[in-house]
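Exercise: predict the fold of this chain.
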Amino acid sequence: MKVLMFGWEFPPHISGGLGTACDGLTKGLAKHQVEILFVMPTASGDEDQSAVRIINASDVAAFETREDARNLLEKVQFLQVTSNLIPYLGPDEFTEQVNLEREKEWNEFRISFGQKYKFSGTYGSNLMEEVMRYALVASSIAKHHDFDVIHAHDWLTNMAGIAAKRVSGKPLVIHVHATEFDRTGEHVNEQVYELEKRGMEEADRIIAVSDLTRNTIINKYHINPQKVVTVHNAVDFSTVEDREISRGVPEKIVTFLGRITYQKGPEYFIEAAYKVLQKTQNVRFVMAGSGDMFNRSIRRVAKLGISSHFHFTGFLRGEDVKNMFAYSDVYVMPSVSEPFGISPLEAMRAGVPAIISKQSGVAEVLHHAIKVDFWDVHALADAIYGLLTYPALKTMTVRCGLEEVNALKWDIAAAKVKKIYEDVLEEKLKKTTI
């Protein structure tokens, strides 16, 4: 079986858990004899291709000839997402408007014959433009490669998946790692929401990383529950190693590692740190990450007067993440809304006890992490203090947690995903034979 998979990032160049999940899943699928063509906006050449073949979208021209462009735009005229929605048009006026928009697309893209678009592969100000161009390139890739199933990860690649499906006729699986409701609460970006919803509607099957996410897809995007399947993430044990670390400070270390954004709950970590420091000074708190609440978090720490026991590292990746876990005595993930959350698994794998919010998908599969409501700062502080103060509690949490995460293997998750591929292929076969 061969799968055309669309992603936005892949190790070692990652900005969060999405790239880590793609890496683990593709390695698991390779063990089940699934061949992966992994497309990403821009590749550096140092990606691990032991389990995948990387296709660099920046090396692919969307159009080669005028005929290619005409045929392509006939199939992907849906690419203009929100700007062309005009209400109350009659049938004739609607047809005329569609033709005008199609001609506009033709005029916009006709100069691109044989040319390539250099994607940044980041999350910058021209993200929507990159998402749409990625879809155009995706359709070209789909036209020139042989595969059985399309698999698209998160909203950034939904349009690419749809374009590939329109060109090839192959079934589409959308993998939802997070939704706009997780990222922004109820203040959703309507354009992102539309891209997410359109991908879900066009998909033959949707993979949710948790039951929490599955319920959001069904209730917030109004998707048929029979289309949505939960496959929990896992953790890669192949890189586990004992690290000799010189900490440089005598105090114990409590770590927050993730984006410093609303979704991850950094303010609750800071408030809990303040409460713990009222009880003991034998602790330092580390906030490892970056995000739009970074400066606000620094100001709050200063205002609380705990700067001498609080450290900001900025964004960490690769070996620095592993070293941070080796430094840590307690790991905390107080997320307001977390579709899954791989980092607690990585912490527990490294022998670090984890405190997680009940509002996280990973809470569905972890029974030996301490769970608190993200907003309950008192409970969070009590949990941190308990793990720092009572060795027996920490020892039990570490031992049981390690046994637990050891059972969460990507091979098992990949087997479930392969079964989803087989199901959509069987459904397509039945439709073609009726």
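Check your answer against the key: The chain has two domains: 2-60+116-234+412-433, 252-406.
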